[in-house]
Every structure is written in C-alpha cells, then in structure tokens.
Amino acid sequence: MEVLRLETVEAGYGPFRVLHGVNMAINRGEIVSLIGPNGAGKTTTIKTILGLTTLYRGRVLFEGVDVTREPTHRRVARGIGYAPEGAQVVPDMTVLENLYLGAYMVKDERLIRESLEMVFAIFPRLKERANQLAGTLSGGETRMLAIGRALMSRPKLLLLDELSQGLAPKLVLELFNTIKKLNDEYGVSILLVEQYVTESLKISHRAYVMELGRIVLEGPSSEVAKSEYLRRAYLAV
Known about the structure:
Helices cover 40% and strands 28% of the residues. It contains ten helices and ten strands. Helix 7 (169-186) links the parallel strand 7 and strand 8. Helix 3 runs parallel beside helix 6.
C-alpha cells in the first residue's frame, strides 16, 4: 500500500517555481532515497509534502487521501514526521522538553509514554542526557534528538532532510545504521534526503534522482547505484 504519492507536482515559493511535474510514490515499510545536487529541489519536495510551499499544480496524497489543500498541522496529525535540515532543536530547552514538543498533538498520555520509551530504546544516549540543555549536545546527539522528536508523534512516514550535514564519517555511519534500524525493527516508512549518495542507496529500497526540480531517474536503489547517469553526475567515477 502506498503511504505517499505526489502527482505532477509543481511547487515553489511565491512566484518562484522549483518543482516541475514531480511524480513520486513511497510504499508502506519502504526507505526511499531522494538524491541530487544542491539546488535540485529536494528540500522543496519535503516542504511540499508538509504543505509549506506554494502548490501551483498537482496533488499530494497520503494513504490514498488527497491532502493537497490541508494545512501542515493536519498532515502531521495524519502521521507525517519531519526532522529538518541541520537538525534544528530548541537549544535552551532540555532534551526531554524537546522530545515532548514532538508529541504536542498527541492527547493519549499512555501513547506519549510508550513513544518516549521507544525513543530512549533507540537512542540510549538521549535518556542519559534527558535533563541536559539541547544546546549543549554534540552534533551526533543533536541529530538523534531531531529524529527522536519526530518519532514522538509515531509517524507513518518520516521525512529526513540532510541530517548528516557536518558530521564526522564515523557518526554518519551510526546515523545510517539507526535509520535502517527504524525501518527494519519499527517498520517506519522513510523519505531520505542525503548528500551521502552511496550510503543512502545501500540502505534504501528505491531511489529518485532529481535535477533542476525534475525527476530524471528512478528505480530500485541497487539499479540506480549502477546507472551510468548517476556514476557520471554524482559519484564522479
């Protein structure tokens, strides 16, 4: 079953169009990579899924329901989680307070407790630092917190935007292992936007390659990784 579908989406900011006829689908339980150079429109695609851009044409469907005209908070309530580029957290709030922010739309206290237990099981370091100010965390811990906060709403689809930015290679590897664990053990569907193309393709099921706001290549990640187009354009080999 499809959890998300974009149909001939054209979107941007005010009069500035960024996406041109984008078609994309994510099935339940999949990791899908969206890759491409800087300025290709990857972050705009994520923001369009969330309803944060101007949509000129096309439709956004979530679990088969047309959410094109729904505001962002309604889409989040339906089950879309988001960890933004640069892993933005509230620095002068504690780790625990930041996590509770992710559950602000959840009314069931039991579910909130279960979500917190799940996040701490995935990221034990966050439990150790629960009362520490988020602004004092390391880069890797900040990424953990950004993902953990997004998971507090128990999303059916998790949007991850360039979380490895600025991290050391060892921490990048840990991050990708965690993303794969979220999918393998918890069944979270994930749209992954990452600058680490090779690593993204290794853990994702399918991939879309975007250039100048258009999808120029798509398919199983293993096939996309072998494509001559990708090798020339992004892997420089």
